[in-house]
Specification:
The structure is a single chain. With 243 residues, the protein is mostly helical. The chain has 9 helices and no strands. The N and C termini lie far apart (101 Å).
Length: 243
């Protein structure tokens, strides 16, 4: 709407210029030709060029109206600018409030997770102590309970390793194979991986899968060449596969 009003201003100003120029030209024409008028007879009524005084007054009135419209529109623009800044401020405050709430929730989750990790450690220690006391059945049950209840705990890898060791000592070779396989396949970079790979090779050999067993034992020697586990694998290979 402001653009329409502004476009109308040049036209109105041009009209004023025509009025002023017309009056000036008229006065000059009259002053310069007084003598000639006196000497010549009047043939008809003289028509003054440009706008009449009444038309000029109307034009001035239109310009005043346009000015008032522009002032009103400027007021509307200022009001809208104020509302926009207000909305931006409210939006920022809401974002900061949301960020604060999320931070509080995160801290609450962390504080609630600490007792959970403490309980997991207690369950793991209980199973480990049962194993050291040669209570293998109770230890296996405790490790299985720990693994089911805390599947994402960092001690899960150790739990599978010791569970495999318990099954191996009990003569449950297929269960031992499953436990050691989980460590080797799912946690290839863990500190228990080398021992699990060695035990898996031994278990597979005792289960009759000598080819697969030899493959794992050889892999231990190659990947962990400087470890004690690699020396055990070399010895087992020599005693069981060199004939």
């Amino acid at each position: 709407m402001i653009n329409g009003v502004l476009k109308s201003l040049p036209i109105a100003l041009a009209g004023l210029l025509v009025v002023n120029t017309s009056f000036a030209d008229t006065w000059s024409s009259v002053a310069g030709s007084q003598d000639s008028v006196k000497q010549r007879p009047v043939v008809g009524a003289v028509k003054s060029p440009g706008l009449s005084a009444g038309a000029a007054q109307i034009l001035f009135g239109d310009i005043e109206v346009l000015k008032q419209e522009i002032q009103k529109l400027q007021g509307v623009v200022e009001e809208q600018r104020y509302e926009l800044n207000k909305l931006k401020t409210e939006q920022k405050e809401r974002y900061l409030d949301l960020d604060r709430r999320l931070s509080q929730v995160a801290k609450q989750d962390q504080s609630e997770d600490k007792p959970s990790k403490g309980k997991a450690k207690e369950r793991y220690t209980l199973a480990f102590d049962l194993m050291k006391s040669q209570k293998l059945k109770e230890a296996a049950e405790a490790f299985n309970g720990f693994l089911q209840e805390y599947p994402k705990n960092p001690l899960v890898v150790n739990g599978y390793y010791w569970l495999g060791q318990i099954y191996y000592n009990q003569g449950k070779l297929d269960d031992a194979r499953k436990a050691f396989t989980i460590v080797v396949n799912q946690f290839p970079n863990h500190q228990k991986t080398a021992d699990s790979m060695y035990k898996l090779g031994v278990v597979l050999h005792r289960l009759g899968d000598t080819s697969q067993g030899k493959q794992y034992l050889t892999l231990v020697v190659k990947q962990f060449s400087d470890s004690a586990t690699a020396r055990f694998a070399k010895k087992y290979l020599k005693e069981n596969y060199s004939k």
